[in-house]
Design a protein that fits this description.
By secondary structure, this protein is mostly beta strands. It has one domain (11-125): Hypothetical protein, similar to alpha- acetolactate decarboxylase, domain 2 (60s Ribosomal Protein L30, Chain: A, 2-Layer Sandwich), CATH 3.30.1330.80. It has one helix at 23-33, and strands at 8-17, 39-56, 61-67, 71-83, 86-96, 102-107, 112-124, 129-133, 138-140. Strands 1, 2, 3, 4, 5, 6, 7, 8 and 9 form a 9-stranded mixed beta sheet that branches. A hairpin with a 4-residue loop joins β8 (129-133) and β9 (138-140). It starts with 7 loop residues before the first strand and ends in a 6-residue tail after the last strand. The structure holds zinc ion (ZN). Zinc ion binds next to β5. Zinc ion (ZN) is lined by residues 90, 92, 106.
């Protein structure tokens, strides 16, 4: 059975990340500082370079894509939950190059901000903790296996 739970919006934060910071690490730091362990993130802006992942579902491992050029950050969508009792931010991004072509993937550290405007929403609700899932090899939210 799929997991379904209701959450309530508790607070919404919006702001701008500093030039040159690490996109994923900075969003994680803000969530930790604001005690957000359940939430939603969106952002737009531009990056100086990016490290994205593609999950190879046959090999059960991420393949990294390192993009060493400035890209537009068309969209970042993410969620916040717990893994091993700590805040974990999981984001996917869509980027575009100077010709307007888009690519995207799972956001890894070492993606460096040129400019970024974010909105983070904090939820109240049952905590969500990631657990190792053997069907996918990923740390996912639990589902009812009965
Ligand atoms: Zn992902």
């Amino acid at each position: 059975m799929s997991l379904v739970q209701s959450v309530e919006s508790k607070a919404v934060y919006m702001g701008r990340l500093s030039h040159g910071c690490d996109l994923l690490m900075e969003l994680t730091k803000i969530c930790e500082e604001k005690s957000i362990t359940l939430g939603k993130i969106t952002a737009i802006g531009a990056v100086k370079k990016a490290v994205l992942g593609y999950y190879n579902t046959d090999k059960f491992e991420y393949e990294d894509h390192i993009i060493n050029e400035p890209m537009e950050l068309l969209n970042l969508t993410g969620n916040v939950s717990l893994k091993d009792g700590k805040t974990m931010v999981h984001c996917h991004v869509t980027l575009s190059d100077k010709s307007g072509k888009a690519l995207g993937g799972h956001l890894f550290p070492e993606t460096i901000v040129f400019a970024c405007e974010y909105i983070i929403e904090k939820f109240d609700g049952n905590k969500l903790s990631r657990e190792f899932d053997k069907e996918t090899g990923l740390a996912l939210w639990p589902v009812d296996k009965s």
